[in-house]
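Exercise 7.
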Amino acid sequence: MSQTKEFELHDIVEMKKPHPCGENRWKVIRLGADIRIKCMGCEHSVLLPRREFVRKLKKVLTDHKE
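Solution. The predicted structure, written as tokens, is:
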């Protein structure tokens, strides 16, 4: 039984490993086959394949509707 983590565009997510700048909060800025996330600390953006993103995702902190 696999647990699917629900995330949408502009959600703030926490990844399993922090960014080298020390921040662990990321904003989802692109969805598709690849997912682009932006570090909330230094604003560096990273493009990850969806499968890799889902594997590295720890939890959704806030969704874009809040």
